[in-house]
């Protein structure tokens, strides 16, 4: 075996061992989430609130379905109708999803800034075991409430993309649908939320 081939095999073996270790320990979600946070910092994944505002002004309002039963991390049953009259930031996420992990710090910063501005955050975990989501929230120190569905999810919110974010205005109309990760901790998005109140 020549030296170059032997060197390549050793390099690939080390890279493979690193990837296997990340997956076995479960750290791959955190590592890939961290890398994707760098992509978010470029601004390429920001929700297009300007385009949505133009479309909304040119088309009739689309009422959002608010009949969604939830259970929060304290075990309390909640129906989304309770938040009627508020702007609702509804985010579908999971602990096993690196893009979800990547956007979470920005969502938490947004929450910290607008939590008293008539905006309700529904961070809806799609994890099979809700305990895992609760432990994740606690370990990260996130202050927003997390939920799990306590019944069927309305067709309006069915998505194959995780994360997915829906924003419902104070009048109960669907104002934004954003598939995939996004940086919501921007001046433009905060202004967008204010305009929906």
Ends distance: 70 Å
User: Which of globular, elongated, flat, extended, rod-shaped describes the shape?
Assistant: elongated
Tell me the number of helical segments per DSSP (H or I, 4 or more residues long): 6
Q: Could you estimate the helical fraction of the residues in percent?
A: 40-55%
User: Roughly what fraction of the amino acids lie in strands?
Assistant: 15-25%
**Gyration radius, rounded:** 20 Å
Largest sheet geometry? 7 strands, mixed
Q: Secondary-structure element sequence?
A: HHHEEEHEHEEEH
Which class best fits the helix and strand makeup?
Answer: alpha/beta
SS elements, strand count: 7
The residue-averaged pLDDT reads 83
Unreliable runs? 51-60
Strand order of the largest sheet: 2-1-5-4-3-6-7
What does this structure look like?
With 197 residues, the protein is α/β, with parallel strands linked by helices. It is built from 6 helices and 7 strands. A 7-stranded mixed β-sheet has the order 2-1-5-4-3-6-7. A hairpin with a 4-residue loop joins strand 1 and strand 2. Helix 2 crosses helix 4 (98-114). The chain is elongated. The N and C termini lie far apart (70 Å).
């Amino acid at each position: 075996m020549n030296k170059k081939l032997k060197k390549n095999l050793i390099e690939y073996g080390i890279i493979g061992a690193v990837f296997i270790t990340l997956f076995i320990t479960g750290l791959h979600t955190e590592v890939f989430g961290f890398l994707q946070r760098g992509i978010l910092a470029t601004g390429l994944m920001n929700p297009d609130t300007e385009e949505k505002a133009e479309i909304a002004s040119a088309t009739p309002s689309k009422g959002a379905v608010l009949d969604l039963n939830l259970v929060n991390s304290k075990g309390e049953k909640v129906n989304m109708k309770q938040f009627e009259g508020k702007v609702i930031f509804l985010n579908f996420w999971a602990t096993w999803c690196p893009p979800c992990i990547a956007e979470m710090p920005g969502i938490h910063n947004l929450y910290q800034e607008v939590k008293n501005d008539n905006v309700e955050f529904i961070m809806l975990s799609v994890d099979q075991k809700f305990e895992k989501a609760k432990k994740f929230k606690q370990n990260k120190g996130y202050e927003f409430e997390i939920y799990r569905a306590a019944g069927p999810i309305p067709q309006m919110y069915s998505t194959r993309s995780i994360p997915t974010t829906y924003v419902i205005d104070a009048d109960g109309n669907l104002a934004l649908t954003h598939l995939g990760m996004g940086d919501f901790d921007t001046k433009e998005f905060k202004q967008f939320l204010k305009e929906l109140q």
